[in-house]
Specification:
The protein is an alpha/beta fold and 307 residues long. The protein has two domains: 141 residues, HUPs (Rossmann fold); 140 residues, 3-Layer(aba) Sandwich (Rossmann fold). It contains ten helices and eleven strands. The chain has an eleven-stranded mixed beta sheet with strand order 8-7-6-9-10-5-4-1-2-3-11, sandwiched between helices. Helix 3 runs antiparallel to helix 10 and helix 8 packs parallel to helix 9.
Length: 307
């Protein structure tokens, strides 16, 4: 991910601004650029734009609304991002999740908070972030107010051996190569997925050989930084991942949002969605079945931007 163009959606809440801080750290390490982004619906926004402290109402002229929002967006970004990394802000009119998905086509990475202005608990993922995870076909990093990318010296990469799960490997390898991070490649065999403990044990033995092969073939250039392991237990995979992340304090957890079943992403019921909802760590995801640019264009009504 050399010189990535990073899109950072914010809603001006303190929670969402953590994404700017995370983007600043990431862009410094990868010589990237950061574009702050905000989408709004002037006619139906019941907040009356109180969150920008302008006193402006939805009945004001569009150009006045945009000027105020653009200025606030720029000022907010400048408070958290180094000047040489910052690109001009982008405003858009429309449904936020659709606007983010649509605009992401021009970027290499989206970094956003798992929740924002509404203040809902992280256990109930913000609806905008959840929808973007479902639809966006660009890599994403989701953060919470407790996420700390820091020097990114440790990473967890998960796999269920499906082709979809392998899609995140190239990104994880590039990040680890640049940051010199320790990378744990993990597959989880949960007893609940099998009829009996013997079947789970036999699968685990087979997977231990296979995951070493995966590590050799996909992380060969940084093999000395990689530890491959299979974890067995009675807990669901997302619980095991959350436990590992908490105990080892990974700076980044990397996974595909679509695994072996290939359909869970539609309801966000997959292991990845559970992890993003509950983990305090930053999570890097790739959605192999994200919505196409063409479909996003059709979904994005009344699109226009101010740059």
């Amino acid at each position: 991910m050399k010189n990535p163009k990073i899109l950072v959606p914010i809603d001006f809440s303190e929670l969402s601004e953590h994404a700017l801080k995370a983007a600043n750290l990431f862009a410094k390490q990868f010589q990237g650029t950061i574009t702050p982004f905000h989408a709004y619906i002037p006619i139906t926004d019941l907040d009356g734009f109180y969150y920008v402290g302008s006193g402006i109402t939805p009945h004001e002229k569009y150009n006045e609304i945009e000027n105020v929002l653009y200025k606030r967006l720029q000022e907010t970004a400048e408070n958290h991002v180094a000047g040489h990394l910052l690109s001009s802000p982008v405003l858009d009119v429309g449904n936020p999740s659709r606007a983010i998905t649509y605009n992401a086509k021009d970027f290499d990475l989206v970094i956003m908070s798992t929740h924002g202005r509404t203040g809902f608990s992280r256990f109930v993922m913000g609806s905008v972030t959840e929808k973007v995870l479902r639809m966006c076909n660009k890599p994403m990093i989701t953060v919470t107010d407790s996420s700390d990318l820091g020097n990114m010296d440790s990473m967890l990469v998960t796999t269920d051996f499906s082709d979809n799960s392998l899609r995140v490997f190239p990104f994880a390898a590039q990040i680890a190569e640049v940051t010199k991070a320790r990378l744990d490649l993990v597959h989880i065999v949960s007893n609940e997925q099998f009829f009996d403990a013997q079947a789970a044990e036999q699968t685990a033995i087979k997977r231990k050989k296979e995951i070493e092969t995966l590590a050799d073939s996909h992380f060969g250039s940084i093999r000395d930084q990689v530890t491959a392991q299979v974890i067995t237990g009675n807990r669901p995979p997302h619980i095991e991942i959350e436990q590992m992340a908490e105990e080892k304090g990974y700076k980044l957890v990397c996974m595909s949002t679509v695994g072996r079943t290939g359909i869970d992403y539609l309801m966000m019921g997959s292991t990845a969605s559970h992890v993003v909802r509950t983990l305090k760590n930053a999570v890097f995801t790739i959605n192999p079945q994200g919505v196409s640019v063409e479909k996003a264009r059709k979904m994005h009504f009344g699109n226009r931007r101010l740059t």
